[in-house]
Amino acid sequence: MKGGNNELVSSANYSRMVLENIIKFMDDIDAISWSLIVRELRQRLNLSQERLAQQLGVSFQTVNRWETGKVNPSPMATQLIKKTLIDLGKDGQDLLDQYLILMEMGDSYAGGTRRSFVK
Prior knowledge:
Residues 38-74 form the HTH cro/C1-type domain. This is Transcriptional regulator. InterPro entries: Cro/C1-type_HTH (IPR001387), Lambda_DNA-bd_dom_sf (IPR010982). GO terms for molecular function: DNA binding. The protein is mainly alpha-helical. The chain is built from six helices and no strands. The model is unreliable at 108-119 (pLDDT under 50). It has one domain: Orthogonal Bundle (434 Repressor (Amino-terminal Domain)). The longest helix is centred in the N-terminal third of the chain and has 43 residues, at 2-44. The protein is 79% helix and 0% strand.
């Protein structure tokens, strides 16, 4: 019986480890996706990171962190990015589609929902 309990604990620990790795993977996908959207948007607007930061009302360091995938834009910043993509019209439609996919993922996973599965 004791051996069976150890196997159960090991199985539970393994399941937790797998779930934590899935969560990290999803976070990495979010960061990479936002990084690509912000960088491509900036390049299509032919702006430096400083100029895009001014346009969005954030610091240069913030735009730099978005582009390097260190952090994702805040909810307010994502709305400004969305407006900028809409203003690009047809030229920004592909990025807007990617944005909408990210936002849909965010509705499912944002706000620590993913992490709440792992206690």
